[in-house]
Design a protein that fits this description.
By secondary structure, the protein is mostly helical. The chain has 2 domains: about 220 residues, Up-down Bundle (Rhomboid-like fold), CATH 1.20.1540; about 35 residues. It is about 65% helix and about 5% strand. The protein is built from 10 helices and 4 strands. Strands 1-2 form a two-stranded antiparallel sheet. The protein has a two-stranded antiparallel sheet with strand order 3-4. Strand 3 and strand 4 form a beta hairpin. Helix 6 packs parallel to helix 9. The longest helix is centred in the last third of the chain and has 33 residues. The chain is elongated.
Length: about 260
């Protein structure tokens, strides 16, 4: 019980419960398919025309097989660490409900476009793993932190805005290798994600940054990536406390001088 309580407390302090849920559920799904020899994965994988399973346009990210070999495991671990860093940041910025909606929208839109386009071209396609929605989260994070420098593969310095372009190129080639049109369809949701991050969708304002936060309170547009709404509130209360103490000190000095003159 202590471990569960500690984990729950940590999740609450991290302020990104949906990101933690995503990572935990993806890891659990991988272990399940490893121990069951992929039994049931067909009910999560997205294929042409949805194959009578419309729910697969939302479930295909959990059709993961990360424990097949060392390379797959390392890649999956890297992706999960990246999702934790970028997903937590975006979730804290726009709020958990909006981030959950963002994830499922970034899952459903490209899934539907890819499978419907492949069906129209009579080209077989199978969509699985969480890369499409993670690409969308990456694009949003990179645009919101475009001047940040990240270490690609741990040793290549790269400005975040360039990683957004790399994500789009990767999506195009991963899903459009045999059919460039399918690759283009796989990138449409990234364009929408970029417009959302730039606050360019009139009916869907971004939850943070220069726009209105999910709580309805305007937050500073030029803030560092590590700054959350809770930290902004803490900083303001700190400065208020400093100002109050300075006022009290000045009042005490004034009274001392007043009584000294009397």
């Amino acid at each position: 019980m202590g471990v569960i309580e500690d984990f729950t407390s940590w999740t609450r302090r991290n302020a990104a419960p949906f990101t933690v849920f995503l990572i935990g559920s993806l890891v659990a799904s991988g272990f399940i398919f490893l121990t069951t020899n992929l039994n049931g994965i067909v009910y999560l994988v997205l294929t042409n025309g949805l194959q009578g399973r419309p729910w697969t346009c939302l479930t295909y990210p959990w059709a993961v097989m990360p424990f097949g070999n060392g390379i797959q495991l390392i890649t999956f671990a890297f992706v999960m660490v990246w999702l934790f860093q970028t997903g937590s940041s975006v979730e804290r910025e726009i709020g958990t409900p909006r981030f959950a909606a963002l994830w499922f929208a970034a899952t459903a839109l490209p899934g539907l476009l890819i499978t419907l386009g492949a069906s129209a071209m009579r080209h077989p396609v199978i969509v699985n793993a969480p890369y499409l929605p993670i690409f969308a989260v990456t694009v949003i994070w990179c645009i919101r932190n475009r001047s940040a420098t990240i270490m690609l593969f741990g040793f290549i310095p790269l400005q975040a805005i360039w990683l957004a372009w790399i994500s789009g190129i990767a999506a195009f080639f991963i899903y459009g290798g045999p059919q460039p049109i399918i690759g283009m369809l796989a990138c449409i949701h990234l364009v929408v994600a970029a417009l959302y991050a730039l606050d360019k969708i009139p009916f869907l304002p971004y939850g943070g940054g220069s726009g209105i936060a999910s709580s309805g309170r305007r937050v500073p547009g030029n803030r560092k990536e590590a700054t959350t709404r809770g930290q902004v509130m803490y900083d303001q209360s700190y400065f208020d406390e400093v100002k109050r103490r300075e006022t009290e000190r000045a009042e005490q000095e004034r009274l001392k001088k007043l009584f000294g003159e009397d």
